[in-house]
Amino acid sequence: MGESQPVPRIRRRNKQPQMRLLEFYVISAQELRRVRKDMNCFVVAYVSADKKVKTEIDFEGITEPTWQEKLSLEVEEAAFKEDSNSQLTFDIFCPGFLRDKLVGTVRISLVDAVKPSNQPYPISSYLVFTPDGDSQGMLNVCVAPGGVFPKRLDFLSFKRVKSIHGTQLEAVPSFKKFEAEETEEESGERVSFPGGIVANLPGGTLG
């Protein structure tokens, strides 16, 4: 009998998880615990601890910092499922010489954060919890419903307006300028009108 041939090993590739984009604005905070004379706060945001993003430093607000900064994360698709317990975490820090000082943390359910809303740019305020477990201060954020803002949106700015309930934050959207596609029908003429709208008119005439 002949010698048996060795069975070749099949190398299985690790299947990469599907990723999904998560977009949000870190707007501002108020009444934070003052842990240093010069607070100079910034925010670190993450769903998974190995992928973090952060804002710029606010040098002026002290315990009332303002960032109004858009951030985005790539998050595993599974984290958005209804039975997921994934959280979107915001850590507020003061920069330090040896290490940064944690001011407080906000944790919100990712599933709840991206739920559809009757507001296109919903603003939510969350209690900030200090490292010793006390609640002091609020963090204001705007998470895109569904996880992603409309493509035509250029950026959001935020202002305080008076209402019957006092003052509240309001989102002010700025949209991208209309960009016409460089396509023309055969024998047509490309005509520009005020406002940047472009039309193809048959026969090359205005009628």
From TrEMBL:
One Pfam match: C2
GO biological process terms on file: defense response
Entry-linked SMART domains: C2
UniProt xrefs under CDD domains: C2_SRC2_like
PROSITE patterns: C2 (PS50004)
InterPro entries listed in its UniProt record: C2_dom, C2_domain_sf, C2_SRC2/BAP
Domain C2: 1-123
Protein's recorded name: C2 domain-containing protein
Organism whose genome encodes this protein: Selaginella moellendorffii (Spikemoss)
